Amino acid sequence: MTTSTNTSQTATHSLAHLNVLISGASVAGPALALWLARYGARVTVLEKAPALREGGFAVDFRGEVHRTVLRRMGIWDEVHRRQTHMGRQTIVEADDQERVDLPAFLMSGDVEIFRGELSKILYERTKDRVEYVFGDSVASLTEDSEGIDVTFDHGAPRRFDLVVGADGLHSHTRRLVFGDESQYLRFLGYYVAGFGVPNHLGLDRTARIYSEPGRSLMVSNYDGDPARAGVGLVFASERLDYDRHDLGQQKEILADRFAGLGWTHAATALEGLESAGDLYFDAIAQIHVDRLSQGRVVLLGDAGYGATMGGIGTGTALVCAYVLAGELAAARGDHRVGFAAYEAEIRAYAKGCQKTSGNAGPFLAPATEKKIRSRDRMYRMLSSRFLAGFFKKLTEKAASDLTLKDYARQPAADYASLNRQP
């Protein structure tokens, strides 16, 4: 899709009269804070963790829409400086013989960066003009015609004009305003887990992927640290009943599901599970809500249209943060107009990006040996030089399926003035 740079599409205005609370300081929240602060709004970002969250999976950006938003944010060069530089990722046989290499653009897009590194970049760009509150969470929201009163688990009550739920797939803000998560979370039949281990395989920005019917194990080294590697696990399953905060229970589930895996390096990789303090475990799922706003509260990123993996979620979050801030500015801060325009602009785009996540589980852990072999033949063919360009465009289609408005008050060529630090 083409990206518009016609500033006459939408006139923007100062949001200096707006006082906005954003719940969530991972990526979507600080990205929105960056834009709202540039439009003059007073912004508070609330995060229940005691500090900025580090680490996390690598996230990628692909296609012209992602690139345009990163440039308009002024972080394109910094993202490239901190990228993973991930190399080949190889699907292997049980004896570790190489079966097929996955194209870098398939797994890593145009540029790939750890979620924690991206979060740091956004925090560094906003901390001098945005208030960050760590170690606290919203307890209640009470709205009236003039604003919204917020109580917190620890801090004193405060009043805001708007509240944004940017607090992830399991959004607490969404639960408070829109109802229980069970109404919106669609389970896709797989679970995913990840944790750090010593780099026993001596990987250097490469990965080894082994699949058996319904389960897959990947060992990778992303950041070039020769001592460390990451283990990723995906398995097909019925819906499991477990405590999301009980790491011991989650480790038992994983040990049981991956017992007897045939890859020659599986046992070594799984040795680190018991002592892992950084375990991530969740269902591969999607969030589907009927609407993205209610009154003075609006959902952004994974809280409104998230997918656990494979849904281009981080790129979608940055694009949608740009649109939400721009539409609020165009509406002079009228949330009724701005929220409706935001949803109209991004609804189809977010759903299209989200749809791609339905392929993540079956791709990594096909259900049968026949489907594993079929997957490998397909990617061997598509990684050939003859078809690589076509396949790259295919992987970028959803991420690029939006015509961006130019919300700037100056011509696009003058975006540098918006990117200057205060």
TrEMBL record:
Source organism, top-level taxon = Bacteria
SUPFAM superfamilies in alphabetical order: FAD/NAD(P)-binding domain
Q: What is this protein called?
A: FAD-dependent monooxygenase
A Gene Ontology molecular function term for this protein is: monooxygenase activity
Keyword Oxidoreductase (UniProt): yes
Q: Which UniProt keywords apply?
A: Monooxygenase, Oxidoreductase
Q: FAD-binding domain: which residues?
A: 19-351
Pfam families from the UniProt entry: FAD_binding_3
* Keyword RNA-binding attributed: no
